[in-house]
Design goal:
By secondary structure, the chain is mainly alpha-helical. The protein is 75% helix and 0% strand. The protein contains twelve helices and no strands. The longest helix has 30 residues. The termini are far apart.
Length: 293
Amino acid sequence: MTLEIGILLALACAFATNLGFLYKYRGACAAPSVDVRHPLRSAKALFTSKWFAIGMGVAVGAWILHVAAMAIAPISVVQAVLSGGVVLLAVMAERLFGFEVGPRQWLGVGFTALGLFALVLTLPHSTGAHSHFSLTGMIAFEGGLVGVGALLIMGKHIGGPAEHHGVMLGAASGVLFGVSDISIKAITGLVGQSGFAGFLTPWLVVALAASIAAFYASARGLQDGDAVPVIATTGTAANVATIAGGIIVFGDPLPGDALGVIVQVAAFTVICVAAALTPAPIRAAESAAPAVA
């Protein structure tokens, strides 16, 4: 039942993550713009906003669920389940936060359900958490992700379109969250082998640094862009980075036959198509905000 419990924890994490992001969006928009030159002042202003503080509290609960899922199930499986969060995001944005979601977005719901069903059918049998990793592969992969995240953060300053700055920051925060998740996965394996001594590793520093950078990038992205595209981009970037890390760094299993591989690739493709069909809800019902509160 270990794999099934990990999937259930990941589903709960997906719901809590999106709920926390939507609350943080409301709070971030009410706070002064994040200024990296004054990180403490910016953080204080964000947490002074009630809705942002509530969102962070929900996000901490989601993080605990995520760590628990990664500790008992392969990281690529956990992230594959989390990838369906874009569907939850669209539903929650419309039902709870007053955004309008059209037929195209609901078609995306169906595609995502189909993709996740096919993915679950092709998951190979797993007998462990797959926490062992190659140090060289870990350093190379994490270093590459940090480089991609830095380029996305600097996007507007190196020729990127200013109108997409919020989405680029969302992607950067997702990539950096992926760096943190992969480091945490490594820590869970080290703790399983060595007990508390497993926390005495440089990967703890990497996880903390990446999480802090992702926090500021995400908050500024929510301020500069629309809620759903920024949140969806953050989640997608984190999922892609972490699934790739699970396969490349931790050696998570792939299907053992060609048909299984084809079906799994098709499942991921369908999920990506669903994400493309589920863009931002086209308007926010401002009058719904007080009711939700």
